[in-house]
Amino acid sequence: MTEKVGVLGKKPQRRTGVEHVVNAPLPTVYGTFQAVGYLDHDRGDEQVALVYGDIGTDEVLVRLHSECLTGDAFGSRHCECGDQLASALRAVVAEGAGVVVYLRGHEGRGIGLLGKLRAMALQAEGLDTVEANLALGFPVDARDYGVAAGILQDLGVRSVRLMSNNPRKREALVRHGVQVAEQVPLLIPPCENNITYLRTKRERLDHHLPHLDAVAHLS
């Protein structure tokens, strides 16, 4: 089969960046959001931003939430992701305006669902989350936030108050042209199942988690 070419005999250029595809109202247990759907032409992922209220352009309360099926959908206690998502949605409603960008393709810090489950199996044998990724031949963190910056720019957002404990998210947004006016902690009380994971995030991934000092009794 021959590939289609343009009228001048050239191959059509492949689209890049994010394309704003659809807006739809999304009533949730937290409040009614606008679900704004995007297509990431660079990676092929479908993305969504949940927008609440009149967000304006500057110092918008924003959460960049990496997809976590086990935490977000199944309530896993291995991580704090599900609780962070719920807290972020509540926070933008309480604020009266804000955005939660739900980043698909970020499962397991970018290594995919099966990769994450394999890493979790190694963690059950004693490796920490960083060691497990490296043992499997994966990067420690393979996530890219360019699509998140593109979505925020499409929404007209110039600067954010970023709900995150991860300084690398702040650095990535600034690198992609979105200013971070403030980094807002999103601290979830740890439990016995995730305390080791959280301590590794603080000690090896530079996450700002000062509340862990108060739970030294957890193993």
UniProtKB/TrEMBL annotation:
The keyword RNA-binding does not apply. It catalyses: GTP + 4 H2O = 2,5-diamino-6-hydroxy-4-(5-phosphoribosylamino)-pyrimidine + formate + 2 phosphate + 3 H(+). Binds 1 zinc ion per subunit. Keywords: GTP-binding, Hydrolase, Metal-binding, Nucleotide-binding, Riboflavin biosynthesis, Zinc. It holds the Pfam family GTP_cyclohydro2. GTP binds at residues 63-67, 84, 107-109, 129, 164, 169. Residues 20-185 form the GTP cyclohydrolase II domain. Pathway: Cofactor biosynthesis; riboflavin biosynthesis; 5-amino-6-(D-ribitylamino)uracil from GTP: step 1/4. InterPro entries: GTP_cyclohydro_II, RibA, RibA-like_sf. Its cofactor is Zn(2+). Catalyzes the conversion of GTP to 2,5-diamino-6-ribosylamino-4(3H)-pyrimidinone 5'-phosphate (DARP), formate and pyrophosphate. Belongs to the GTP cyclohydrolase II family. This is GTP cyclohydrolase-2.
